[in-house]
Amino acid sequence: MRPLIQFKLFFLAFLLFLAADLAESEPAPKNQEPVNIVFMIADDWSYPHAGVYGDEVVRTPTFDKLAREGVLFENAFCAAPSCSPSRAAILSGRYPHQLEDAGNLWSIISNRHPNWVSRLQQAGYHTGKSRKGWGPGDYERGGYEHNPAGKDYTDIDAFLKERSPGQPFCYWFGSNDPHRDYDTNSGIKTGMDPMAVEVPGFLPDLKCVRNDILDYYFEVERFDRECGNIINSLKEKGLLDNTMVVMTSDNGMPFPRAKANLYDYGTRMPLVIYWKGKVISGIKVASMVNLIDLAPTFLEAAGLEIPDEISGRSLLSEMAGKTSSKQRDTVFLERERHANVRKGNQSYPCRAVRTKDYLYIRNFEPDRWPAGDPETFQSVGQFGDIDNSISKFLIMRAGASGKGDYYNLAFGKRPGEELYILSEDPYNLRNMAAKPEYEAIVKKLRSSLVHWMRTTADRRLEDPQTTFWDEVEYTPDYQFENFDLQKEISEYRMLKKKGSNSYEAIPCME
Ligand SMILES: [Ca+2]
C-alpha cells in the first residue's frame, strides 16, 4: 500500500475514533477501505433507451437493478457527442475545448491533462481496462505508455488476478456496443416487437427504420448483459459491497441527427451510479449533470484531492440525497471535428446550453455542412459524420423532396442559432431562435454561453472562426473504401434475402 493511502486510512481512523469518542457508545464502522471503482461505458447509447427510463422494448435488467439499488440520473449529458472528445472529457473532468487536439475525433490525447485513472494508479490503485478505452486516436504520441483508461486486460477476472491482496482497484469496461455495424435482423430475431418501437421524430417511420432500431437495441441488451456478468463476478469475489459501479455511454445513437449532434439524442446519456451504503438507494437525481462530473466524483470518493483545472463538480452530495451548491441547472455542450468529412479538413464547430426547458445551439460556421459534405470526400461517402446505415440511406434516397423534412433535418445546413422548446419538442425539430416571442430567452441563453466560454478559456470566444481544430491531425490507421449509395442499399437487400423468415415479413424497402 502506498504511503498516501496509509496516511489517509490513518487519518480516517483517527476521525472515526474522535466520532466514536464523542458519541461515547457508537462503535466505529469496520469498512473503511478505499472504495473500488468499476466504470462501464457503452459506445453510442442514448437516453432514454433503458427499461427504467420507460422504454418498453429494450430490456436492460442490469441497468434497471443498479437504478433500484443506486442512483439514477435523469439529466446526464456527455460533453461532446463523439467518442474521443467525450472520453477525453470523462477522463480529465475538463471540457473538450480545454483539451487542445483531444477536442476532435481520431486525435492525440496529451498526458498533461488530469486523468482520474492515472491519479488513482499513483495513489496505489490497481488500474486497468478491457476493450474500448479512450479513443479512437493516438495516445502514445501524447506521452501515454498504455491507453489512458488503463492497461489492457481480457476481462475483469484477468484484471483482478493481477491485483495485490487488499489493493483497491479501478476497472474500466468499454464495450463496443451499440456502435455500428449491426447484424441485420439481430434485434427482431430475439423477439422484440418492431411495432412497439418509439421512432424518434427526426427519423421516418418505416419498418426498415424500426428494424434498424431493434438491431441497435440488440447491442444495448448485449452491453447490459456483459455489465451484469461483471457485477456477478464482483459479487462472487465478495468485492461488490465496497465498489462504486457506474454504467453510462459516451455519446448518442448512431442515427441521423443523433450521434455527432448537440440535439438530445446525441448528448443525453443514460447514467446510473451504485455504491452500497454510501448513496440513497433508488433515488432519482433530476439536476443537470455533465459526464465531466465523474472525474471529481471518483477522486473525492477515493479521498483524493481534486485538481484545480478540473471543470467538473463532484456528484457525491447529490447521491447522498443532499442539495448541493455544486448542483447544476445548466449543462454546456460542444463539438468540433467529428469525422474528417469536409473539404479543407474543416470542423463543424458548435457550442450549446441545455437547461431543463431549453436547448440553445450556436453554430459557428453555418455555411458548412453539419453532417459532412454532400459530395464524396476522401472516399468516406456523403454526409460522413453520420454512420452508414439503412436509416441514413433511405433518407438519402428519398432526397430533399421526399415525404417529411427528414433529409433537411439530417443533412441540411443550419442557421447560426437554434432554440428548441423541450416541453413541446422533445426531438428538437422546430427551431424557434428567430421567433420574436423567444427573443428574451435567446438573449439570456446566449449570454450564459458566452460566460461559460469565457470562464473556460474557449478560444472560439475571442476567435469564432479559429482554424485550430481544422488543423489538428486526423489519425485513423485505415483507409476508407469507395462508397456507392445504390450498392450499399442493394447489399442491405441481399442481407434481407439471406435473412430468416421473420425478416422476409418486413418489406422495409417498399
Ligand atoms: Ca461512441
Description of the structure:
It contains 17 helices and 14 strands. It is an alpha/beta fold and 510 residues long. The chain has a domain at 3-321: 3-Layer(aba) Sandwich (Alkaline Phosphatase, subunit A), CATH 3.40.720.10. A hairpin with a 2-residue loop joins strand 12 and strand 13. The longest helix is centred in the middle third of the chain and has 30 residues, at 207-236. The relative contact order is 0.15. Residues 15-30 and 494-507 have low confidence and may be disordered. The structure holds calcium ion.
Secondary structure elements and pairings:
Elements (H helix, E strand, L loop, with lengths): L2 H20 L13 E7 L18 H9 L1 E7 L5 H10 L14 E2 L7 H7 L3 E6 L5 E2 L17 H6 L7 E6 L11 H4 L17 H30 L6 E7 L14 H4 E7 L8 E3 L3 E2 L3 H8 L14 H4 L10 E6 L14 E6 L2 E6 L26 H9 L7 H6 L5 E5 L17 H17 L3 H4 L5 H4 L13 H14 L2 H4 L6
Parallel strand pairs: 1-6, 1-7, 2-9, 2-10, 3-5, 4-6
Antiparallel strand pairs: 2-8, 7-8, 11-12, 12-13, 13-14
Bound molecules: calcium ion.
